[in-house]
Amino acid sequence: MTSARILACALLLGLACLTGCGDDEPPSVFRSCGLVVDATSFSVNTDVPKKIREAVPAFLADCDRVAYTVVSGSVGSSDCRQAPLGLNAGPRDGAQGNPHRIEQINLTRRAAAVTVMNRLLDCARQETRTRTGSDVIGALADIARQANPLDTPARLLLISDMAQNTKELNLYKAEIGTAALREAIIARLRRDNRLPRLEGTQVRIVGFGVNVTSDALRQQQFRDFWNLLFQRAGAPPVTYV
């Protein structure tokens, strides 16, 4: 068994209570969230753990549940997985309406959720078969499926340069210089059932475009491509940090 597989199993076993000990039923306004961390070359060239520390705790403050996905060369082939976690105290936690105890449980769960993201990052870095390439679009599709279990709009935080690099689409080389070219790529993704479903989903991206290109025009085209993709996927305007 590989070290990555061992770590993945440990994550699932060690966090079983977090997954199952939250609210028995979701509240009437259920705040579902998703976290995506990039374990490709972006994590080598950027201090991703620092970005996690700076961005994730505040993001989780407004979440009742969080799902996870790691950007790698092949999202579906990775063993580095984690079931969604409930973040709020529920009836089975024995808080008995004590506000202090409820707050303590909620804070502990959110701290554990940050730890999970760091462990998933470490796990994916150790995987060899998913190391080549960067399937950002696959990660988006995966997190969208996990974060919208009740068909309610979710909130997503991505820590990634968004540099899609697969046989299907390599944004380092792809022709994206005009609106027509960008539309054609997205139409192909939709035709191949690869366009994520993000209807109403709020997306926040940390690290967008870092070290992808030094050419100002190409940088703008890169942003224009992702803006169009999120628009066609149904998301409102994206927040870039």
Automatic annotation (TrEMBL):
Q: Where does the signal sequence lie?
A: 1-22
What's the domain of life for this entry? Answer: Bacteria
Keywords, A to Z, come to: Signal
Q: What is this protein called?
A: VWA domain-containing protein
- Organism placement in taxonomy: Bacteria, Bacillati, Actinomycetota, Actinomycetes, Streptosporangiales
